[in-house]
Each structure stands twice: as structure tokens, then as C-alpha cells.
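Quick one, C-alpha cells below:
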């Protein structure tokens, strides 16, 4: 059984990941279309390039999310207000 805070964090991470996957999927489809239409690149090389681009974007996404979470936590601590969803 998940605690309410864990459940909220899990839903937030799923929502972020879903938005990321949607955006990256559209970007990858566009890049694949450009590669197939305008270059004579081998499909395996095309797939490898797409995988590399997606991995780099995911690492960038993780870094941005970590910074956002850190700033939110610092802002909450600085304001002196406590999280209304915690029991303390």
C-alpha cells in the first residue's frame, strides 16, 4: 500500500513521463520522416540515431525535472509553510 505522498509523487512522475513520451514520439517520427525522405541512410543507422537522440533528450528531461523539484522544495522550506498533505 502506498502512502498518500508516495501516490501523489508517482502520479506526478507518470504524468511527466507521459508528456515526455508524447513529445519525443512526435519529434522522432518527424526526424525519421526527414531521414527516409531526404537521405539514403540505412534504416539501422537511422534507428540508432533516433535512439541516441531520445536517450540524450531523456537525460536532459531528468535533469530539468530534478532542478524543478529541488527549487519547489527549497521554495516550500523558505516560505515556512508546511505541506498540507503531510501528517506532521
Amino acid at each position: 500500500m502506498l502512502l498518500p505522498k508516495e501516490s501523489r509523487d508517482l502520479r506526478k512522475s507518470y504524468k511527466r513521463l507521459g508528456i515526455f513520451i508524447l513529445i519525443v514520439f512526435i519529434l522522432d517520427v518527424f526526424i525519421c520522416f526527414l531521414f527516409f525522405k531526404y537521405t539514403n541512410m540505412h534504416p539501422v543507422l537511422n534507428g540508432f540515431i533516433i535512439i541516441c537522440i531520445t536517450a540524450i533528450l531523456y537525460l536532459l528531461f531528468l535533469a530539468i525535472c530534478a532542478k524543478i523539484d529541488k527549487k519547489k522544495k527549497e521554495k516550500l522550506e523558505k516560505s515556512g509553510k508546511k505541506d498540507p498533505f503531510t501528517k506532521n
